[in-house]
Amino acid sequence: MNEHRNSGLWDRAVRNLRGAWDKIARSDSELLPTSLSPELSDADRVKLVGQMQACLEGRGGEVSARARAAALGHAYLALNDRGRRRFMETMANEFGPERGAVDAAVEALRGAADDEARQLAEKDLKAALVAPRVRLLTQFNGLPEGVKFLVDRRAELLAYAHESTALKELEQDLKSLLASWFDVGFLELRQITWQAPAALLEKLAAYEAVHAITGWEDLKHRLAPDRRCFAYFHPRMPDEPLIFVWVALVDGIAGNIQELLDAKALLVDAEAADSAVFYSISNAQTGLRGINFGDFLIKRVVDSLCKELPALKTFATLSPIPGFRKWLTETEEAEGSLLTDAEAQSLEDALGHSGLSGLSEILSDRGWRNNEILVEAAKQPLMRLCAHYLLEERRPGGTTLDSVAHFHLSNGARMDRLNWLADTSRNGIEQSAGLMMNYRYRLGDIEKNHEAYRGGGEITASSAVRGLLKVKDRQ
């Protein structure tokens, strides 16, 4: 359903953008949008290079330059998928750094006789290293929806940039450009309510990446009086959420997502609630992947909630563990070093054979969670192995292997409680074996936890979570 929504939003946005940019292009009486074949034929690629060069030359002043950029963007939007890819290949290959100018600047720097000459040579080298395509991309910044256009172009590039050095360099140029524009200091945190424009609410439903929104009634429930939604926005993309978080105001820390999302559950008095549970965080713009503006997002939301609802004492998440099942599957070959004797015996009694292959057999049965024998056999090994996965398995840089855990630990949270059969949806079982983690945010510890994790990979976890590892030590 989300895929259908995304497709509809994209088609509508393209139609609106083409219309707006066509008007800008035609505002210069001497300029008409270039007509290119949908697949961008070889002959049209020659025409495209000329159009790009004209944009870089900037003849006719600011108005003409803006019209040329609009015409170039309009031409891109009229292409099909193959044509758009060839468009980006043309920009990558034909408008990279001028190697001769770079070599000359390097030689001048090497031969600088004094500080003044060195400063001049450094300036020239910096200028030579800026590819003309960067200046081309920057021109879109001045167009309506131009920043969003570039964000979407990087999303497309990420899919195939690895295929050539020039395309990878173009993707990195675009990433650097966007990173400079999307500094967290430029972003605005806004609360979204049911009274928000329908177009914005539709985007929330389309971009939700953790717990799919099934329709308008579901969305309305998630924006009920005992719920909150906050999102970051950029001034040049005021109607496009960048990242957003859903919050439930409850009594005590929630440990089951189906109960939390139940539209039939009784409303909680928001003024009297003692806990705020963050149950979903979604990055809405694929083109901003790798550009960090999520750090301390939750801290800002916590600050906002504290001002609105002073009765709140506890701030925690109910988070998926999306990499656990994948890791478990890949680790089957090392099963002898992971299971205790008692766990292996329990699996053998339930299934007739033991080992991680036994766990996999249980998890492959969609109805296993309704079988008391299988649930009892799987609970201890899955809980302990998940704790091991979160606390012990690391990336080369020392950070935790799980992406969601990494996000919350980077934001200054601690691992507080691992919940059994907390998400029994198909996705929850397939990704996390039904397990979910409560990450807790203590206001006085956020900065300390953040520095400990980002500085040395130290994971802050409760004794209950760490105690799950000790089960094996006692065997």
Keywords:
alpha+beta; 475 residues
Rounded radius of gyration (Å): 27 Å
Number of contiguous helices: 21
| Overall form | globular
Helix content: 40-55%
Order of helices and strands: HHHHHHHHHEHHEEHEHEHHHHHEHEHH
* DSSP summary, beta strand count: 7
Task: Please identify the structural class as seen in this structure.
Answer: alpha+beta
Strand content: 5-15%
Biggest sheet: strand arrangement: 1-2-3-4-5
Distance between the termini: 48 Å
Multimeric organization: single chain
Low-confidence stretches: none
Task: Give structural notes.
54% of the residues lie in helices and 9% in strands. Strand 4 (275-283), helix 13 and strand 5 form a beta-alpha-beta unit. The strands form two sheets. The chain has a five-stranded mixed sheet, covered by helices on one side. A two-stranded antiparallel ribbon has the order 6-7. The model has no long low-confidence stretch (mean pLDDT 89). The protein contains 21 helices and seven strands. The longest helix is centred in the first third of the chain and has 24 residues, at 2-25. The chain is of the alpha+beta class and 475 residues long. Helix 1 (2-25) crosses helix 10 (198-207) and helix 8 (146-160) runs antiparallel to helix 9.
